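Example for tutorial group B:
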C-alpha cells in the first residue's frame, strides 16, 4: 500500500514538472505506463522565398528596419537648407537636390561650386569732376561635405575661397608685385604706409553640427552657419555678395507639423585673444569689442495660402571704456551698452519654399519691422546743442549737460503683389519704405539699419522684386516704388525688367547704398546729396534746396541654365539721379567756382557671372 502511494506521489510530481517545464506535455502523460518513442512529425513542404515588390526606376529601395547599415534619407533628396551657400537657379537646385552619384557610403555627400563674376561701374557718384570707372573680376570657389551619419547626427563643412583677380599682395618692386605667384609672402614697411592691406581669401563659410531627435521635431545646430529667415530682408544669406553672411552661433529649432520655432545666439565680435588666436575686433585696435546677435523666430502655416512669421532679433555691443580711470583704478565708461532690437512680422501666401503652392495665380507679401533700444550714448537737447558740440568726453567719461539717452526709433515696411496668368509670365509691384532721421543730432536714431540683410534680390534666387541690382541705392531713408516683370522660358531662359523709383523719406537725411551712408567728395562738401544734419538750415538762403528724388533705376536681367549644373547671369542697370543729388552737385553757392556745376546724371552698372554647382 505504501509502495503504491509512493508511486502515485512520484508520478504526480513528475507530471507537474513536465507540465510547467515544457508547456507542451498533455495531461494524459502524467503517469506513463511504458516508455515510447514518439514518431517524428512529417517534414513541412518547401516554401518559395518571398519575392520583393518591383521597384520604380531610379528609386532607392527602402532600408530594412533591422538593417545595421544606416542609409541617409537625404540621398537623392538633399534638404534645401544644406545648400543655402549657393546663388543658383531653380533648375540647378533640383539637380543638386536629386543627385545621387556624389553620395558615398550612403551617408556622405560632397559638392563643389565655382562662380567667376565680372563687374563694371560708371559714374556711381554722379559727379563729372571725378574719374569714376571701375572694372573688376572676382571669383568664388566652394567645396562642401554633408555627413548624415545617423538619424540623430548631421554635419556640414563648406570651405570657401573668394578673391579679387589681380589683388594678391606680393613683395617686390614694380613688375614683381603682379599677383601671379601663389601663396607669396610680403614685407610691410610701416614707416612708408599707414594702412596695410591684408588678403584673407579662404576659410570656412559653414562648419556646423546638427543634433536632432529621431522624429526630427527638435534640433540643435552648433558652429558656423547661415541664418536666413523669410525673404532675407532682415537677416539673410546675402549670396548676392560673393562673400555672403555666416554666423558663429548656436541655434535650436522645434518643428511641430506646420509650426516652427527658432532661437539662436551668435558671437559677432570678440574683445579678447584666446588660445594663441588674435582678435581683430578689440577696442584696443579700434574695434567694437564684445558683440553678440541673438533672437527668436516663430512661423506657422495655418493654410496652404497663408504663412505667418513673427520675430525679434537683437544686436548687443559692450559698453566702451573711457581713457581715464578712477583714483582706485576702476574703469570709467563713456558709453553704455548698445542694444538694437528689430521686431516684426511677415505675412505671405508664398508658402512653398517662398514660392506659390500653384504655378499660377496671385502672390502677395507684407512685412513690417520696428527698431528699438538704446545706443548707449547720451546727448544734450537741441536748445543748447544745435551744432552738436556738446558730447560725452571719451577721456573722462563725463556726460554733456542736461543729457538724455539716445534711443533707436526706426522702422521698415515692405509690400509686394504679383500676378502669374501662365506659369511662364509674372508681373508684380512692390513698395518699400525704410525710415530716415530728420535730425541726426538729437536723442533718437530714426534711420533704419539693415545690418545683416540680403542686399540685391531682383536677380537672385528669390524670383521676386527686391532692391535694385546695382546696389547704388538701398533701403535706408528711402521710399522705393518698383515693378517686376518676368518671362521664363524652358528653352531661352529668364528675362526680367525691374524699374525702381527712389525718394527720400526725410529730406534732411542722406542717401545710402549697399555699404551704408554715401558721404560724397570733399569738393562737394563731403555730402552726396542735399542734407541738413542738425536740422538748422531750413532758412539759410545760401544752402541748396533740399531735394526729394534720389534716382530712377532700370534693371535688365537675363538668366539661362543651359546645363543642369551651369547657369549664366547677365545684368545691366541704368540710373538717372534726381533733384536730391542734382541740387547738391549743381550748387551756385559753392565757394569754388569750378565746382558749382559738377552734376552728371547718368550712372551704369553691368555684371556677368557663371555659376557652376554640383
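The residue assignment follows.
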Amino acid at each position: 500500500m505504501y509502495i503504491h502511494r509512493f508511486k502515485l506521489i512520484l508520478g504526480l510530481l513528475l507530471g507537474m514538472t513536465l507540465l510547467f517545464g515544457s508547456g507542451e506535455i498533455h495531461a494524459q502523460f502524467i503517469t506513463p505506463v511504458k516508455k515510447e518513442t514518439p514518431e517524428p512529425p512529417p517534414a513541412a513542404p518547401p516554401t518559395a522565398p518571398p519575392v520583393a515588390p518591383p521597384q520604380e526606376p531610379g528609386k532607392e529601395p527602402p532600408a530594412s528596419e533591422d538593417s545595421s547599415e544606416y542609409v541617409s534619407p537625404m540621398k537623392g533628396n538633399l534638404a534645401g537648407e544644406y545648400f543655402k551657400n549657393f546663388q543658383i537657379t531653380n533648375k540647378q537646385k533640383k539637380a543638386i537636390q536629386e543627385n545621387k552619384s556624389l553620395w558615398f557610403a550612403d551617408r556622405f555627400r560632397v559638392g563643389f561650386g565655382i562662380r567667376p563674376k565680372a563687374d563694371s561701374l560708371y559714374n556711381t557718384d554722379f559727379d563729372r569732376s571725378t574719374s569714376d570707372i571701375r572694372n573688376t573680376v572676382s571669383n568664388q570657389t566652394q567645396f562642401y561635405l554633408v555627413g548624415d551619419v545617423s538619424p540623430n547626427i548631421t554635419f556640414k563643412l563648406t570651405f570657401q575661397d573668394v578673391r579679387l583677380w589681380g589683388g594678391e599682395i606680393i613683395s617686390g618692386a614694380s613688375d614683381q608685385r603682379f599677383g601671379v605667384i601663389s601663396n607669396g609672402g610680403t614685407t610691410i614697411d610701416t614707416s612708408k604706409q599707414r594702412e596695410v592691406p591684408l588678403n584673407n581669401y579662404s576659410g570656412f563659410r559653414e562648419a556646423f553640427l546638427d543634433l536632432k531627435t529621431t522624429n526630427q521635431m527638435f534640433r540643435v545646430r552648433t558652429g558656423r552657419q547661415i541664418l536666413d529667415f523669410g525673404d532675407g530682408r532682415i537677416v539673410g544669406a546675402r549670396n548676392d555678395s560673393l562673400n555672403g553672411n555666416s554666423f558663429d552661433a548656436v541655434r535650436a529649432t522645434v518643428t511641430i507639423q506646420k509650426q516652427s520655432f527658432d532661437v539662436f545666439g551668435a558671437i559677432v565680435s570678440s574683445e579678447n585673444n584666446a588660445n594663441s588666436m588674435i582678435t581683430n575686433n578689440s577696442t584696443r585696435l579700434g574695434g567694437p569689442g564684445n558683440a553678440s546677435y541673438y533672437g527668436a523666430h516663430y512661423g506657422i502655416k495655418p493654410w496652404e495660402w497663408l504663412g505667418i512669421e513673427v520675430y525679434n532679433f537683437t544686436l548687443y555691443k559692450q559698453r566702451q571704456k573711457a581713457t581715464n580711470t578712477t583714483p582706485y583704478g576702476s574703469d570709467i565708461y563713456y558709453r553704455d551698452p548698445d542694444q538694437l532690437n528689430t521686431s516684426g512680422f511677415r505675412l505671405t501666401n508664398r508658402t512653398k519654399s517662398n514660392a506659390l503652392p500653384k504655378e499660377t495665380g496671385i502672390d502677395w507679401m507684407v512685412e513690417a519691422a520696428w527698431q528699438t533700444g538704446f545706443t548707449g550714448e547720451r546727448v544734450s537737447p537741441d536748445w543748447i546743442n544745435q551744432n552738436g558740440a556738446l558730447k560725452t568726453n571719451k577721456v573722462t567719461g563725463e556726460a554733456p549737460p542736461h543729457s538724455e539717452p539716445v534711443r533707436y526709433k526706426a522702422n521698415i515696411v515692405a509690400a509686394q503683389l504679383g500676378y502669374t496668368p501662365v506659369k511662364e509670365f509674372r508681373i508684380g509691384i512692390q513698395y518699400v519704405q525704410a525710415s530716415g532721421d530728420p535730425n541726426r543730432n538729437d536723442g533718437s536714431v530714426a534711420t533704419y539699419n539693415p545690418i545683416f540683410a540680403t542686399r540685391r534680390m531682383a536677380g537672385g534666387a528669390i524670383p521676386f522684386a527686391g532692391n535694385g541690382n546695382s546696389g547704388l541705392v538701398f533701403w535706408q531713408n528711402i521710399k522705393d516704388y518698383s515693378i517686376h516683370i518676368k518671362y521664363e522660358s524652358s528653352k531661352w531662359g529668364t528675362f526680367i525688367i525691374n524699374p525702381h523709383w527712389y525718394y527720400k523719406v526725410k529730406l534732411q537725411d542722406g542717401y545710402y547704398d549697399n555699404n551704408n551712408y554715401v558721404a560724397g567728395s570733399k569738393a562737394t562738401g563731403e555730402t552726396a546729396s542735399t542734407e541738413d544734419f542738425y536740422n538748422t538750415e531750413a532758412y539759410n538762403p545760401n544752402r541748396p534746396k533740399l531735394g526729394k528724388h534720389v534716382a530712377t533705376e532700370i534693371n535688365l536681367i537675363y538668366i539661362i541654365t543651359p546645363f543642369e549644373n551651369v547657369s549664366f547671369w547677365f545684368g545691366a542697370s541704368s540710373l538717372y539721379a534726381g533733384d536730391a543729388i542734382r541740387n547738391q552737385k549743381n550748387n551756385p553757392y559753392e565757394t569754388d567756382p569750378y565746382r558749382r556745376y559738377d552734376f552728371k546724371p547718368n550712372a551704369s552698372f553691368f555684371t556677368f557671372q557663371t555659376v557652376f554647382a554640383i
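Helices lie at 2-22, 90-98, 579-585. Compare this with the pattern of hydrophobic and polar residues in the output above.
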